[in-house]
Every structure is written in structure tokens, then in C-alpha cells.
């Protein structure tokens, strides 16, 4: 249900239409909050920036298809902080109109990530692929078209919202297909209030010298800090400045993490702390 209340402190924004997996993640993590669907990731971030929502639920990676949203590019300049994470099991349903069947379907449409997560089954079925902005939007499109040759890959919730027939459940290639989401806020969480194992996410740019990355990361090894994610990307199209996104277990209030981060800062041009938050799934 789309949020209509004036109490924006009880609203969480997400990218996509009602029935999207981000919608499901938002209500699973925050069942008492109202939801605000947004057309793009930038719009979802802007809703929090502008005070129209308190939080945003953004997908960051998928166990089958890898990176989902370029959050490491969008977040550093947004002024928002990661305050939590959520893992949502993604079970894609093949859906169409009431008259549709496996025999009538020629084309399947969905978000590029959903198509990639079902690529082997799509190929085996002989379907053509058509990308759409989001999974629920694809379901909405199929419902509006009323074409028995067109099907969508989306959630059970999307099938209910747009009154589509589920032709085949669990159409994804991998049975344990899971998407990791991050929760964003205008204010960082007070680390003193957090319980259990913590994660810290940050971006950094290494200096343009030989072995810069090796030197920058050496402190994490020598100080026994577990780095669970490291991904490189280019912030612009110049291919001259490589940025990195990283997740580590712990926080700078811990001595070993503080030493590792101090060494990182010495060997880098800048470090952007994106947030510290409780682990929803323990990494170590």
C-alpha cells in the first residue's frame, strides 16, 4: 500500500512499483512502516534527503547475479548513511494473463537482474527477453497489455497486486537466490546503541603509486579484521581513478579496526564511511 500519511517518520521509500521485491523487503524489515514507491534509486534516496521518508530500502547485491544497484556510486554524495541490512529470499514467478500458458508465451519481461537470475530457465524455455525498470512494473505492464504471448518475472505479491495468473513458481535458476538490501537514513546510527556483531561499509580511492592497494589493505590482514566485500569501480568515464567499496566486520571503536583504518587512510586519497550497523547474518 502506498503511503499517504503525513507522518513521514513512519515512511520507508523503495525503488519500483507496489509488489516489487524491495517492497517485500521493506515490509519484512519494518512491518509497521508505510511504504513509498519511487521510480528510480535516485528518487528513493531523494525521498529521504528531502524528508518525505525516514528510511530507504535499497538492493545492493544478489547471490546469483551479483551487484544490483550502484549504491557505492550513489551513496557517498547523497549525505545518507547505511543503518541496517536485510536479506530477502527471491522466488521469481512466471506470470501472465488468465489465458496465458507455457505454450502461448514467447517473450518474458522483467528487471535485468531478474532476467539474469533466470537466464538458464529462460533459454531452456526458448523465451525472448525484454528488460523493464523493475519486476513489479513488468507485471503491471503485462496486465495492461493483456497479451498471452507476454509474461513477467516477479513476486507472488506482484501477481496479487496486478491480478495475474502464476504459470510457474520458483522460476529462478538457483533455489537459494537471495538479495541483500541496505537501509538508508539521513542520520548515522549511534554505535553505542547497537548490539551483536557489527558491519562497517566505506568507499576509498587509492593513491596512484605502485602496490597502493596492497599497502592500503595490509592493515586489515595484520590486525585480523575480516573484510567480507571488496569491489572496484570507476567514479567517472576517465578510467584513471579507481574507487573501491568495502564491507568489514567491526567498528572503529575496536582497537584492531582503528589501526587498520588508520593504515588505510595513510595509503589512500580519501575514505568515505557509509555507515556502521548490526549484521542481520553473521559473517564472523
Automatic annotation (TrEMBL):
Swiss-Prot/TrEMBL keywords: Amino-acid biosynthesis, Aromatic amino acid biosynthesis, Lyase, Phenylalanine biosynthesis
Pathways involved: Amino-acid biosynthesis; L-phenylalanine biosynthesis; phenylpyruvate from prephenate: step 1/1
Cross-referenced InterPro entries: ACT-like_dom_sf, Chor_mutase/pphenate_deHydtase, Preph_deHydtase, Preph_deHydtase_CS
Gene3D superfamilies per the UniProt record, alphabetical: 3.30.70.260, Periplasmic binding protein-like II
Keyword Methyltransferase in annotation: no
EC number: 4.2.1.51
A UniProt-annotated Pfam family: PDT
Catalyzed reactions: prephenate + H(+) = 3-phenylpyruvate + CO2 + H2O
Limits of the Prephenate dehydratase domain: 11-186
Entry keyword annotation includes Lyase: yes
A single GO molecular function term of this UniProt record: prephenate dehydratase activity
Top-rank EC class of the record's enzyme: lyase
Xref: NCBIfam families: PRK11899.1 (NF008866)
Protein name in the entry: prephenate dehydratase
Organism: Kordiimonas pumila
Amino acid at each position: 500500500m502506498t503511503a499517504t500519511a503525513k507522518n513521514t517518520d513512519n515512511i520507508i521509500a523503495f525503488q519500483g512499483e507496489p509488489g516489487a521485491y524491495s517492497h517485500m523487503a521493506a515490509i519484512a524489515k519494518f512491518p509497521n512502516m508505510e511504504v513509498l514507491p519511487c521510480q528510480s534509486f535516485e528518487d528513493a534516496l531523494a525521498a529521504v534527503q528531502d524528508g518525505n521518508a525516514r528510511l530507504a530500502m535499497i538492493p545492493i547485491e544478489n547471490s546469483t547475479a551479483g551487484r544490483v544497484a550502484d549504491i557505492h556510486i550513489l551513496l557517498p554524495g547523497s549525505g545518507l548513511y547505511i543503518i541496517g541490512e536485510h536479506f530477502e529470499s527471491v522466488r521469481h514467478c512466471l506470470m501472465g494473463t488468465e489465458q496465458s500458458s507455457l505454450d502461448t508465451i514467447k517473450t518474458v519481461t522483467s528487471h535485468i537482474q531478474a532476467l539474469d537470475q533466470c537466464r538458464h530457465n529462460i533459454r531452456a524455455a526458448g523465451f525472448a527477453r525484454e528488460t523493464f525498470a523493475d519486476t513489479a512494473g513488468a507485471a503491471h505492464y503485462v496486465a495492461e497489455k493483456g497479451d498471452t504471448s507476454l509474461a513477467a518475472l516477479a513476486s507472488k505479491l506482484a501477481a496479487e497486486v496486478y491480478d495475474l495468473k502464476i504459470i510457474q513458481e520458483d522460476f529462478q535458476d538457483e533455489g537459494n537466490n537471495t538479495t541483500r538490501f541496505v537501509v538508508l537514513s539521513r542520520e548515522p546510527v549511534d554505535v553505542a546503541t547497537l548490539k551483536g556483531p557489527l558491519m562497517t561499509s566505506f568507499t576509498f580511492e587509492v593513491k596512484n603509486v605502485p602496490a597502493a592497494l596492497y599497502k592500503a589493505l595490509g592493515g586489515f590482514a595484520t590486525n585480523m579484521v575480516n573484510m567480507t566485500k571488496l569491489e572496484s569501480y570507476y567514479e567517472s568515464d576517465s578510467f584513471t581513478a579507481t574507487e573501491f567499496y568495502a564491507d568489514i566486520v567491526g567498528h572503529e571503536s575496536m582497537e584492531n579496526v582503528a589501526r587498520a583504518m588508520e593504515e588505510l587512510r595513510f595509503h589512500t586519497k580519501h575514505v568515505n564511511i557509509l555507515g556502521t550497523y548490526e549484521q542481520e547474518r553473521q559473517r564472523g
